[in-house]
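Dear colleagues,

As part of the handover before I leave the project, I'm documenting each prediction I ran so the next person doesn't have to rerun anything. This entry is a single chain, and its sequence is reproduced below.
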Amino acid sequence: MSTCFPVYVSTIFILHPFFSPAIIFAMDIRAGIIAAVLLCIIGGLWILRSGVRGLQAARKLTFYRIKRQRVRGGWFTLLVALLVLSFAIWLSIFGEP
């Protein structure tokens, strides 16, 4: 390691003074909030679609107790989707300091 360290440090300063060898680039708070909002919206829509499909699948069942459990699960999934989407709206409004 001692032979590589001086070469590594010297190449960083030769290439560019603001060069960062990290894979994740520097993000400011605004970019992080936008990324979080987009991920929440995509996840919320995905969960919403899952809830709707769960309700549609429950409609086709004939057994009452299983059908009732699936309908309850579908509505719970829709509630979670609405919570995630409302968190995305809240984060876009109040996320930045």
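The CA atoms of residues 64 and 94 lie 44 Å apart. The radius of gyration is 24 Å.

All the best with the project,
I.
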